[in-house]
Fold this sequence. Notes:
CATH architecture of the largest domain: 2-Layer Sandwich
Bound molecules: phenylalanine
Order of helices and strands: HHHHHEEHEHEEHEEEHEHH
Strand order of the largest sheet: 1-4-5-9-8-7-6
Strand content: 15-25%
CATH class of the largest domain: Alpha Beta
Number of strands: 9
Largest sheet: 7 strands, mixed
Structural class: alpha+beta
Number of domains: 2
Number of helices: 11
CATH superfamily of the largest domain: Bira Bifunctional Protein, Domain 2
Radius of gyration: 44 Å
Amino acid sequence: xxxxxxxxxxxxxxxxxxxxxxxxxxxxxxxxxxxxxxxxxxxxxxxxxxxxxxxxxxxxxxxxxxxxxxxxxxxxxxxxxxxxxxxxxxxxxxxxxxxxxxxxxxxxxxxxxxxxxxxxxxxxxxxxxxxxxxxxxxxxxxxxxxxxxxxxxxxxxxxxxxxxxxxxxxxxxxxxxxxxxxxxxxxxxxxxxxxxxxxxxxxxxxxxxxxxxxxxxxxxxxxxxxxxxxxxxxxxxxxxxxxxxxxxxxxxxxxxxxxxxxxxxxxxxxxxxxxxxxxxxxxxxxxxxxxxxxxxxxxxxxxxxxxxxxxxxxxxxxxxxxxxxxxxxxxxxxxxxxxxxxxx
Length: 344
Ligand code: PHE
């Protein structure tokens, strides 16, 4: 019996040497020290020995049990450390890996142009005035001197809503009426505003025209405003926007809400006015519609047109952005293609 016991001890210790994970360790424990483990069973069988052998055997069996328990505890610690180290290694952070760059949003190229406009006009005393995108026929057309069935309405095909007389604004000009009514204090105060915003036209989409686009409108109403003020102000704007040496010209045109009306051209800065396919070999680029505010429109804004006068203009920031960056298709702007947008 005693020999057998010593053999168990040798086997157990030898086996323990080879144990290298906690599952195997657990199995080893059950095998030798568990309730039905080899050493436990031997210890329990002490009573079956002849009385004179019992004390000796029992003592040795207890010693071995103790010894194996201690060996077990040591091994357990070693195994645990090993496993921890392995875990750490598999979860290891490579601190030399370069970080992933955060992708930042950018400012839309058209918004960039808008902001340049705002800065230049602010320096000349124009404040930003925004008004609604969803307009009534009254504000979009009637108050701007488009008679109900006047063919001028055909200039702009509108998006109609299911509500009678409610449309998406086709230009920012209805903002002129809102600004005069809200800031003019019943036609007693001057107004100097720019009116930026999205406009909508029911049109064929092409490289040159989109169903949505922005405009920046300008309006100045005062007591002695003359056409020379309009020309000087727009020329000053053009010089800051396109360069001090740029020439500006005004061409007679027609809008129902201005009289007289003019279109504004700047010398083509792409070909130095030599003529290219963008300026269609004219040497000039159109940048705005403008004119003196029509007396009827002034009256609709609350002013007495015999005392008050004003000028207005409307510009297309998309077109100006296209010219400046050599963009040949207006559809890029609102199609949200990052490959395009990330270039700005
Ligand atoms: N609203 C005109 C357009 O959309 C532009 C314009 C604005 C013209 C103000 C004159 C004065 O074409």
